[in-house]
Structures are given as structure tokens and as C-alpha cells.
């Protein structure tokens, strides 16, 4: 990915501010060991290191080691239940957390083929596309997430991240983050977006960064 000078000035600070939310988002996922049940929580994740998409799905020091036994168990459940979108999303989550993004793409796509109206899975798929060097496809997937739920703030936060780091579109990133702040100023996403906007404004004032809304 092209590393323009603004990336060097903004990336470390922005991601330092966002990393706590990213980790919390991952931990908030339904426990893969628990009995499979309908997932009603928002579990889409922001890119944890958007400067360096892996592209190859290899693990890094932050990756969760894949539980092969658990994957086999869930795959067996998926084979027995060809219409179970949730179990396929759970497999995708395991691969996502292990930073094996080509595999997470496969399972998120399979889940959405059964249940195309899940914005959380759709956004996780978009992030996986981004990490496999498919930036435009990621943004297209995020657009589908917003068609499902126009107020899905995790999607909007991710749109800002991908526009900033994948497209070098600071104005577009600021616009996406501002929407998050307007919709959910006191949510984790809203606080992360506000911090990103404020940092962006300090580093690059002409982008129109800087958030309104409650602090």
C-alpha cells in the first residue's frame, strides 16, 4: 500500500486510539466454544493495522492461534446443516481472529449466501476483503452493509479506515467518521471516530476533520 507522508503522521496516533476498541470488539464476539445460538450482537471489526494488509492471511504476533479442533467441529456442524448461516459466520470469525483472511472470506461469503441480511457478517467480510488487498471490493461490501442497516456505525467506522488508508481519501474518511459521531456520539464507535477526526484535523487541517457532538 502506498505510504504517503500523511500516513506516517496520522496512522500511529489514530490506531493507537482505536486499538482498545478493536480488541474490545473482538472479545465481544460470541464465544466460539459456547453452544451455537442466534447472534444478535454487533461483532464487525475495524482493521487492526490498516497500514499493512496481510494479503496472504498469515498470522502475526497479534493473531489468535487457530483452534483446528474447534474448526473441524464447526465445519462438521455446517456440513450437517447446509442452511445454518450462523455456524458459517462462527468459522469465519475463527479464521478472522487468526488473521487467515482468505479463509474468513470463504466462510463469511458462505454465511451471507444463506442470510444476506446480516450487516455484522457483511462488514466482517468487507474487512476481510480489505486485508486481502481488495480495497474497492471492501468498500462495495460496506455499502451493502449500509443497505441492510443504514445506521450501522461499525460499518461507517470501517469505511473511514479503508478510505483513509486504502484510498488515501481523507475527506471521505472524515465524512464517514463524522456520521458515526452524529449517530452514536457516546458509543465506543462514536468515541473512536471523534478521536480519529480530532487527530486527523491536527495532522491535516484541510480535510475538515474535527467532530461535533457530545464529548
Number of strands: 0
The ordered string of helix (H) and strand (E) elements is: HHHHHHHHH
Compute the number of helices: 9
- Gross CATH architecture: Alpha Horseshoe
Strand content: under 5%
Cα Rg = 17 Å
The helix fraction, in percent, is 55-70%
Mean pLDDT across residues:
76
CATH class division: Mainly Alpha
Terminal CA distance: 33 Å
Count of discrete domains: 1
Profile the largest sheet: none
Shape: elongated
Task: Sum up the structure in keywords.
single chain; 215 residues; mainly alpha; Serine Threonine Protein Phosphatase 5, Tetratricopeptide repeat; 62% helix; 0% strand; disordered N terminus
Short description:
62% of the residues lie in helices and 0% in strands.
Structure description:
The chain has a single domain (5-207), classed as Alpha Horseshoe (Serine Threonine Protein Phosphatase 5, Tetratricopeptide repeat). 62% of the residues lie in helices and 0% in strands. It contains nine helices and no strands. The protein has helices at residues 5-27, 68-80, 85-97, 101-114, 119-131, 135-148, 153-166, 170-183, 188-203. Helix 6 packs antiparallel against helix 7. The radius of gyration is 17 Å and the shape is elongated. Mean pLDDT is 76; it is low at 1-13, 15-44 and 48-60.
Amino acid at each position: 500500500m502506498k505510504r504517503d507522508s500523511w500516513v506516517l503522521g496520522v496512522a500511529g496516533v489514530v490506531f493507537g486510539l482505536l486499538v482498545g476498541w478493536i480488541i474490545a470488539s473482538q472479545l465481544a464476539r460470541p464465544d466460539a466454544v459456547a453452544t451455537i445460538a442466534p447472534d444478535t450482537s454487533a461483532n464487525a471489526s475495524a482493521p487492526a493495522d490498516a497500514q499493512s494488509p496481510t494479503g496472504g492471511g498469515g498470522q502475526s504476533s497479534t493473531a489468535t492461534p487457530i483452534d483446528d479442533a474447534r474448526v473441524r467441529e464447526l465445519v462438521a456442524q455446517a456440513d450437517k446443516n447446509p442452511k445454518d448461516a450462523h455456524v458459517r459466520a462462527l468459522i469465519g470469525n475463527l479464521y478472522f481472529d487468526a488473521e487467515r483472511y482468505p479463509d474468513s472470506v470463504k466462510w463469511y461469503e458462505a454465511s451471507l449466501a444463506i442470510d444476506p441480511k446480516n450487516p455484522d457478517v457483511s462488514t466482517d467480510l468487507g474487512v476481510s476483503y480489505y486485508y486481502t488487498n481488495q480495497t474497492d471490493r471492501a468498500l462495495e461490501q460496506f455499502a451493502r452493509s449500509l443497505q441492510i442497516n443504514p445506521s450501522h456505525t461499525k460499518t461507517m467506522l470501517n469505511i473511514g479506515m479503508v478510505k483513509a488508508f486504502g484510498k488515501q481519501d481523507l475527506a471521505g474518511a472524515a465524512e464517514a467518521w463524522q456520521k458515526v459521531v452524529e449517530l452514536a456520539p457516546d458509543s465506543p464507535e462514536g468515541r473512536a471516530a471523534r478521536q480519529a477526526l480530532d487527530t486527523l484535523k491536527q495532522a491535516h487541517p484541510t480535510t475538515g476533520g474535527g467532530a461535533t457532538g457530545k464529548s
